[in-house]
Amino acid sequence: MIRVVDLFAGAGGSSLGAHLAGCQVVFAANHWAQAVAVHAQNFPGTVHACQDLRQFDFASLPDHDLLLASPACQGHARARGKDRGPVHDASRSTAWAVIDALEAKRPRWFVVENVPEFLKWTLYPTFADALTRLGYWFDPMIVNAAEHGVCQTRVRLYLRGQRRTMLRPMSLIRHSPIPVRSILDLGKGTFRPTVGRATKTMEWIRAGRERFGAKFLLAYYGQGGPKSLDQPLNTVTTRDRFALVEGDGMRMVQVPELRRAFALPDWYRLTGQHKLDVHLLGNSVISTIMAMIIKGTVS
Questions:
Q1: Which residue from 78, 92, 112, 211 has the least number of CB within 10 angstroms?
Q2: Residue 261 falls within a domain, yes or no?
Q3: In a domain, 276, yes or no
Q4: Does residue 264 sit within a domain?
Q5: Cα–Cα distance list, 167 to 15, 65, 80, 82, 108 (Å)
Q6: Are 283 and 259 in contact (CB under 8 A)?
Q7: What is the pLDDT along the chain (299 residues), one digit of tens a residue?
Q8: Is residue 181 part of a domain?
Q9: d(CA 170, CA 295)
Q10: How many angstroms separate the most distant Cα atoms in the chain?
Q11: Prediction pTM value
């Protein structure tokens, strides 16, 4: 069985992808204790470390065949807002942990997940050169989850690599978009009146009723405004940003519904705390997509 190390593992989306691909996750690390606790609940046989990976002894990693890593994306993502200098420099620097781990243990394969803007990072050519000098052939893939059986428009980079020999080309099977209405519990939940909301929200509600009728979704911040229930969900972030409008009432989209937008199986455990679970999901990797990437990489 292929042995996997998962760095920046978060709540375990990549590890779940490895599990679905028939691999064994032997080690997982993340700096956030609450994410590590959730990961440990779901992968009790995995060795865990709560650690700032910029200060980790990578020689201590167990031997493994496949390295998975999702270094911080905040310094690259377009949604980051005004660049905060040293804060985002520190975020981007987490990617060097990937090089350190590959140099220390030389696994046969790796998959790095991040936002597509990672490829535009000023130091990406240096990062890529380091991969080459370590003997890896690599292939960046940009994948929109909504095109591959997931009810979420989540566009991510998957940089997959193999030592010594070129990777086999791969392509993912495309699926028709999944409408967001299929993951929502329509008619359920605690609805509050739409009247008396902020001016911008009321403008969105009026526009939504004109375009979509009595039922539609509102997205707050980013690409905000009314959204059709016949399209996939927009990208889930670490904060509540989606409200369901039905008639004269509205409510926020709940964690069980957001789980479906990540194709999480029912057995996968989160914390049961709404705000924390939204944050964990917003930082997560979609496991079914990662499973497809892994299968296409190691086959």
A1: 78
A2: no
A3: no
A4: no
A5: 22, 15, 33, 38, 11
A6: no
A7: 999 999 999 999 999 999 999 999 999 999 999 999 999 999 999 999 999 998 899 999 999 999 999 998 655 455 545 555 554 455 678 999 999 999 999 999 999 999 999 999 999 999 999 999 999 999 999 999 999 999 999 999 999 999 999 999 999 999 999 999 999 999 999 999 999 999 999 999 999 999 999 999 999 988 899 999 999 999 999 999 999 999 999 999 999 999 999 999 999 999 999 999 999 999 999 999 999 999 999 98
A8: no
A9: 10
A10: 63
A11: 0.93
And the tokens for 165? 């020999």
The total domain count for the chain is 2
